Each structure stands twice: as structure tokens, then as C-alpha cells.
């Protein structure tokens, strides 16, 4: 086995600690497949990959958040997910995003991306800022399955297989 492979699962070590970015919320993906983002869509930046906020007519407001999934062996996969929020919360986030008040930002919403192998799409979430240099984190949920995802450790070989 090569030295850059995991001794437990044999997969390359760089697969074990990484970021997985969802470009758009799942409800928006169908619109893009049908011809692009709807007219009137607002992005906080030029492209969805760079954006931290998104407003889609008739679908709603979304904020990019981080959702870490702890893996055995001290590894972490961090998902860059979208959370559906109220338009008032989107406006509030926009006002403080680059201000000192950002440190105290807390939002409630619903997870807008399906995680691989876990049925938590639309689960209620609470989002909080942990580090002012990063997007907010999905901090907690009243959904039992998402609570497990947020608090437990999972076998890294099984999770990494889902991301192949």
C-alpha cells in the first residue's frame, strides 16, 4: 500500500479531510437544468460557487453554511451546503456579513441540499457563526437524523465510498 494511502481503508489520504461544495440548493438545480437561473435571481457574488447568499424568485432565500461530518480516525468532510431562510433573515445576514455584528449572527431555516446517503433534505436547522473568517455553521437541528450527523462520528470508509 502506498504511503499516501489510509492504512484502514486504502483510499488516498487527501480524500479523508476535504470540502464538498454544493453549487446550488437542490430546489434550484431543476431550474438550472431547464435553462439557467430564473430572471431576477440575486447572487451575493458573480457565480454560485463564490456566493454566500442567493435569492430566487418564487423559491426563496438561501444562505451558504458549513456542515462538518466527523469521520473515524480524526478526519472530517465539510459540506458547503445551502440553508433556506426567510427573506427577512437574508436581509439581516446581508447587513452584518462584513461587519463586526456578523460574529453574533444566528439564523433558523431548513437544509436545502441532500447529503449523500442521509435523508435530511429540508430538516430544520439553527445556523451560527463559529469563526468570523468563515461562513456560518449548521449548529443544531430538531431533526433526530441530522442531529446524529452533527454530533456523531461515522466510519470514514463508508462515507468516502458515498462521495466517490
Shape: globular
State the major sheet: 9 strands, mixed
Span from first to last CA?
19 Å
Q: Give the ordered list of helices and strands.
A: EHEEEEHEEEHEH
> Counting H and I runs of at least 4 residues, what is the number of helices?
4
Structural class: alpha+beta
The radius of gyration is: 17 Å
State which percent range the strand residues make up.
25-35%
- How confident overall, as mean pLDDT? 90
Description:
The protein is an alpha+beta fold and 164 residues long. It has helices spanning 26-33, 87-96, 144-151, 156-162, and strands spanning 18-21, 42-43, 53-56, 60-71, 75-85, 106-111, 124-128, 137-140, 153-154. Strands 1, 2, 3, 4, 5, 6, 7, 8 and 9 form a 9-stranded mixed β-sheet that branches. It is globular.
Element layout with pairings:
Blueprint: E1 18-21, H1 26-33, E2 42-43, E3 53-56, E4 60-71, E5 75-85, H2 87-96, E6 106-111, E7 124-128, E8 137-140, H3 144-151, E9 153-154, H4 156-162
Parallel strand pairs: 1-5, 4-9
Antiparallel strand pairs: 2-3, 3-4, 4-5, 5-6, 6-7, 7-8
Which characteristics define this entry?
164 residues, alpha+beta, 4 helices, 20% helix
Summarize the structure.
This protein is of the alpha+beta class. Helices cover 20% and strands 30% of the residues.
